[in-house]
Automatic annotation (TrEMBL):
Residues 65-81, 88-98 have a biased composition (Basic and acidic residues). Pfam families: TatA_B_E. Residues 109-122 have a biased composition (Low complexity). The Tat system comprises two distinct complexes: a TatABC complex, containing multiple copies of TatA, TatB and TatC subunits, and a separate TatA complex, containing only TatA subunits. Substrates initially bind to the TatABC complex, which probably triggers association of the separate TatA complex to form the active translocon. One of its GO terms (molecular function) is protein transmembrane transporter activity. GO terms for biological process: protein transport by the Tat complex. It comes from the Bacteria. This is Sec-independent protein translocase protein TatB. The gene is tatB. Part of the twin-arginine translocation (Tat) system that transports large folded proteins containing a characteristic twin-arginine motif in their signal peptide across membranes. Together with TatC, TatB is part of a receptor directly interacting with Tat signal peptides. TatB may form an oligomeric binding site that transiently accommodates folded Tat precursor proteins before their translocation. InterPro entries: TatA/B/E, TatB. It is found in: Cell membrane; Membrane. Its main location: membrane. The keyword DNA damage does not apply.
Length: 140
């Protein structure tokens, strides 16, 4: 951290022993290390708080960008749904298209009709008499 070698530490210990004295030196070392630890914790807390704020700013900027892209995409979809962006609502466009559509589709007169009568297309659910007739047929 401070790039202090063994010789410097030895010099500081000798000066501390001469100035403070052998009785109070251990207490002074404890007090000095406690203050140094508090100072380190304070700097670490400050560093972490700044990192959190920077991260929060980055997250908020990312959210702004995402919000803007979603808004643009929504506008693009709205324009696609409303046609060429003429400002009409989709319901108005659908109503106009229904009014312009022909009543019956054009059919080839020589082609066989694919439409079937509703009774032929779906006979409906089986009735109890149908089930009984089928059972009688299976027993014979």
């Amino acid at each position: 951290m401070f790039d202090i070698g063994f010789a410097e530490l030895l010099l500081i210990a000798v000066v501390g022993l001469l100035v403070i004295g052998p009785e109070r030196l251990p207490g002074a070392i404890r007090t000095g290390s406690a203050w140094l630890n508090r100072l380190r914790r304070g700097f670490n807390e400050l560093k972490h708080e700044v990192q959190r704020e920077l991260h929060n700013d980055a997250v908020m900027e990312e959210l702004r960008k995402t919000s803007e892209s979603v808004r643009k995409e929504t506008e693009r979809w709205r324009d696609d749904l409303t046609g060429s962006g003429d400002g009409r609502a989709p319901e108005d466009i659908a109503e106009t298209e229904r009014a312009q559509a022909p009543a019956e589709p054009f059919a080839d007169p020589g082609a066989e009709s694919t439409a079937t009568a509703p009774a032929e297309a779906s006979p409906g659910p089986p009735t109890p008499t149908d089930a009984a007739a089928r059972d009688d047929g299976d027993r014979r």
